Amino acid sequence: MSEPTEDSVRAEARAWLQENWDPALGLVEWRKKLAASGWGVPHWPKQWYGRDLPVKFNAPIEDEFRKIGAVGVAKAGIRTLAAATILAHGTDLHKQKFLLPILTGEDTWCQLFSEPGSGSDMAGAVTRADKQGNKWVINGQKVWTTSAHKAQWGLLLARANWDVAKHKGLAYFILDMKQPGVQVHPLRQMNGHASFNQVFFTDAIVEPEFLVSEVGDGWTVATTTLMHERRGADGLRSWATASQAQGRIYEEERAEIATTMEPYKWYPQRAGRVDLVMERAKSTGKIADPIVRQEIAKLLILSKAAEWTARRARAAQEQGKPQGPEGSLGKLVSSHVARQAARVHTYLTGADALLTGEDSPMNGVIAEILVSVPATSIAGGTDEIQRNIISERVLKMPKEPSVDTNKPFKDVPRNITSRAS
Amino acid sequence: MRFSFTPEQEEFRASLRRALEARSPTKEVRRLMATDDGFEREGWKKLNQELGLTALHIPEAYGGGGFGTSELAIVLEEMGRGLLCAPFFSTAVLATTAILNAGSEEEKKALLPSIAAGETTATLAFSEDSGLTDAASIAMTATPSGALYRLHGAKSFVLDGHTADLIVVLARRGGSRGDEGLSFFTVSGDSPGLSRKLLKTMDETRKLARLEFNHVEAKLLGEAGGAAAPFARTMQQAIVCLANEMVGGAERLREDSLAYVQMRMQFGRALASFQTMKHKAADMLVDVEMAKSAAYYAAAALDEGDEEMPALASLAKACASEAYLQTAIHAVQMHGGIGFTWDNDTHLWFKRAKSSEILFGDANLHREKMMQTWGERS
Lengths: 421, 378
Prior knowledge:
The complex is a heterodimer. Chain A is α+β, with helices and mostly antiparallel strands. Chain A has three domains: 1-73, no CATH class; 79-235, Butyryl-CoA Dehydrogenase, subunit A, domain 2 (Beta Barrel), CATH 2.40.110; 266-394, Butyryl-CoA Dehydrogenase, subunit A, domain 3 (Up-down Bundle), CATH 1.20.140. Chain A is built from 14 helices and seven strands. By secondary structure, chain B is α+β, with helices and mostly antiparallel strands. In chain B, helix 5 packs antiparallel against helix 7 and helix 7 packs antiparallel against helix 10 (346-358). Chain B folds into three domains: 7-120, Acyl-CoA dehydrogenase/oxidase, N-terminal domain (Butyryl-Coa Dehydrogenase, subunit A, domain 1, Orthogonal Bundle); 123-226, Butyryl-CoA Dehydrogenase, subunit A, domain 2 (Beta Barrel), CATH 2.40.110; 229-374, Butyryl-CoA Dehydrogenase, subunit A, domain 3. At the A-B interface, helix 10, helix 11, helix 12 and helix 14 of A face helix 7, strand 9, helix 8, helix 9 and helix 11 of B.
């Protein structure tokens, strides 16, 4: 058989869709058929619902789906990260049990990594995994867990060995969320939304076959999940758009997307809403204030230079040039943009910025910007961690001397929980 | 819009950098900046002719290389990096651009070939004692005198004004105001009635002069009374070029500071291993890369005739002004005590950052100009 080309792959996908696409099917029923065909995740192995095609064909295949109006496999949320991790590190049992319900969207997943005591220092997790008989018993607390209240399964990073260095004592599990030892409570944020959860484990049980890594390799597996998380961060927008077509399957897909997107509805505000600034400056009349004009111009400089810097990075990538420094700055720059935007929105709003909800401008959107922007410089890697990454990976500056990686984790100092009186 | 340099442009930049590193080490910069002229005529002529620098963006019809602003911007970025002491900005950017924007076919043919060939140095005299850069601030008058004119008044902050062979002067018809009645003129540097005084500049690598015109004989350049539009265009090009020069200097300071903290040991560790230094270095990289993006974009926009040009040029200048100065402040700080000494080279770029921040209008002015394009009251 000859090497597949974009044209041959498109033709094959189109032919299969013409034969099989049926909007009258239920969403799960259709996705089962799609998974069996390999066209839902063509870059996956043939053995596991894929077609062993290079990733570069995903976009043209998705394009064929769009043309015919066909719905794809479930891609939203943590389930994609779970699938990538299981494909890379899971056993055949994991693949048999979990991959199909991930693709059909029947199973929802959550990621149990961050803890109250370890956010940036994620390898410092202190949730315990103790072997009792042949089962693992989990005790501790996780936080910032999206969809934990809806999830059937969790990707859990926990400490199974306290006598070795911090990165060496972690194990990676698949945890059944629907059990008495797991309690999920919403975590309310400073902007009033509760997009995330806290998850408490009290003698929660993991069956031995749901250990994904060997004890000690948990950090390596978690790195796979995190890598896919970073890579997928830009995908948020693409899967957030539901088809507006009529029919049962479309309605089911729209409902799925609405549920998954619900926690993220304030995300545009956390980026600062630069798009609203000029309109607000004109409608409030503040456009005539020379000081406000200076602040708006500062914002425009930041946001345009940020956009052009990203375009430079993309252009270099497209030409196959080695990545320059401009490719590593986006996350940190977005914090600068968001903060300056919040400052400008405050100047534009005046006393009305004292108010919130329906008493405030744009039915609370402006107020929501002001109290959501602080998330930008924390979520997904704080500004401080970004600066470490830039200085170490781009500028090749040395790491700070480590005080916690060369000794048993049990000897590493932990948070001081009460002050001496 | 193009967001990367072509392989030819990259190669051009690399060969230019090699040449400037060899010909303009800081020892040479220090030697030339201490002279009144600020450069050496023979040395500059040789370098210029070898590399075809002043010819670069002059159209082929007038003896030039026919390249665009993007290539010119590369030259400026590299000169800003190397702090080359030469009358390049005054000749190639200010005077040449004014002639190209305002001159008739005949005038371009008469004036540009000797500039392209490196025989003539030139400058543009527009600011007066107020230091302002807008057309309305021009007070110098031009009075017709037969086929020629007589210029009377003073120009100041004239780049290389004390050494230029040819001076393009912006002056107005007596009694006219604002954009009206403005014309360009050309005057020879050794004209009778012209007295030129070198000003003592904080940034010794950029020489400025005050020129007094006592009824100096001048030739009209371009259309009588029609200089406002070509002048505005010349200033846009000048600030885009300056922004590119600035990011070259900022990048050099950033690299030198990084190299210094990598090498310097304190408290038993490389200074570069302290998070306070790493975070500063990361912030400097962000500032410089953002300013580069704005400067490159503005240069490409000039070549493409972008309608938003005045705002894009001002954006690039404002962005580079803040970034260069901030980088220079960090650079002195990262060097510590030695960074405040005369013998350490950091101050050469610090002063260039300061002079560039102010030249052709500071960040406040250019942010306001941006808003005049993008923030029209509706």
